[in-house]
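Schema walk-through. Below, the input block comes first and the output block second. Nothing else is stored per chain. Lengths vary across the set, and this one has 426 residues.
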Amino acid sequence: MQRKINLLLLCFSLLGGGVAFVLGELLLGRRPYDLPSILIIAIYFAIVALGVGLGALLAEMISPRLNGLSWKQRYLGMSWKLLPLTVVLLFGVGALTEFVYELNFGGVKPVKNVVMVIDDSGSMQQSDPGNSRYTAAEALVQQMDKDNQVAVVTFSQDASVVQPLISLKSPENREKVSAVIRSLQTTDGGTNISGALTEAMNVINSDGQTSRGAMVIMLSDGFSEFDTSRELNEYVSRGIAVNTVGLALDDQSGSRLLQDIAATTGGQYYDVTDADRLGDVFQQIYDRLGDRTLLTERSDATADSPYYAVVRILALILIGTALGIGLGIVFDNRHLAKSFGFGGWVAGLCAGLILEFGLSGQSFGDALIRLIALLVLAAILSLFTYVVPVGEGRLSRRGRREAAAAAPTSSEGFHSPRRNRGSKGF
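--- output ---
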């Protein structure tokens, strides 16, 4: 056995990984047929297996430096038949690891209830004369998933629930909420943030489904007396984030209050100077809920969870190892399976660390991180044959039988005479 490197295999694996990345990003972005996250991630890693596996197979077919010339002459056809097995293997491992990653432990609840709290005070006539906040809220309702529930609270001097929590499963309910939002108008009066958040919590408590998490999107352009250390206790204890949007805030005290509310509850603060941008901001807040997947940033209550960080890294280690063993199966070589398997372990560890500490929630940046992780995975796999020696050694019985049948029994091609164990030398 020897330590070898096939540079052509390295190049083709990286090329295959790059093609898989492009196809995978299209899959993540479009989510065809509203497939669940488990299937999306499983298909993603199956595409990776196909891209890297196909690249490695073509490279060895052109220059069989790792698996030997005898493999190309006798077993290349079998390798093409075994490639789909690796794709299926990665599909299964991807689905399993994503399923585990999406499990909710430690009381974590997926956020499914969204309460929109909208400022209707008189100052909004200057901050948002075109009522863009209503248009943005209506557009968000139309974009929400079917398993969401939504409620709408408005506030000025007083706060009121104009739309209690309602499921968006049916188009009729979705249109009902939109109609309520379209009927809203700016009123007179001050800015009662305390009353608004109290009403929002009452709405959240009205839902009897304890398995559903909730979050609040609150828009305001003003300031009111508010004791964050006391009035947000229930939000903090239940892990309910309040995402705040400050619209055209000239008073820095108002901006600081909204920032404090978001920071205290684990939400995000957004400073908006142009009301026409509210639609993008509302959508950005909603998108940060997202699905918790191995390939995207955690933006729910598990964002800083060391448990889910470890689970992601272990999942990528398992996926990398499965990919390496799968490549060994493709080449029908137990030594390559061992080398690629160990390489996949190390590659998966590196890819997991890159994803865990590199993903930030920014579309372009996260795509770049996924590309780097994928290329690192393919590169380490390809180069690990220099660390773990490889040689010829069939995995399948058929391969071993054919190799044994093809091997000559003596240097002359004839059977060697059996030694007479009873001979004394005469």
